[in-house]
Amino acid sequence: MNRIQVPIFELDNIRVTRENRIALKIGKFQFHRGTVYGIVGPIGSGKTTFLETLSGRLNPTEGSVLYESERYAKTWLGKTKVPAEIVFLENMTDEYTGSIREFIQRKLPERIEYIQRQYYSRSPFTDEWEMPIQSLSKGQSYRMNLIVAIESDPKVLIIDDYSSSFDAQMKREFNRRLAYSARIRGTTIIISSADIGNVRSVASVIVSLDNGHISKVRSLKK
Question: Is the per-residue pLDDT at 42 higher than 70?
């Protein structure tokens, strides 16, 4: 089988139990390469548990998650070894005191000129380039972390609570950049939100969760 046709994730009868409660229960499901998936559902529907299980951060109580047809490797202590090519968006800057430029120089030195030109060369973002990380607002910090995640060119990018810190302009910008990453770079992108409106304009597939179960899967023509 052509490698590009092999699903990047395959779920087989997974169940995640937390505090004697089933937090997630999904039969068979596949995620395909170069596709943007939107995981939607109300608070408590299992979105974060779903993403953590996919990424290897959380081991299912039952069933299996295959990444590129293989189970995640384990350390000798039984901890999951998550491949570096899977990026789960999070705050990367705890206790970092340098500027955005210094942080990106450390993380992606070969991309720094491109990132400055693409993301920080126009108002109001030009002033942020030399700002200390610790002085950034929540929205500025989220934007910077998302930039680093996208430009690290991962094979899989997972974003929980997508666009919650965005204004309308930022949402349009990053919808476009995520779509480009999926279409041109072949990145598989999985984003979640309690509001379907936050993902509908960028996702090709909408997966609806209800009480830890997939209640609907809808393909959107892009």
Answer: yes
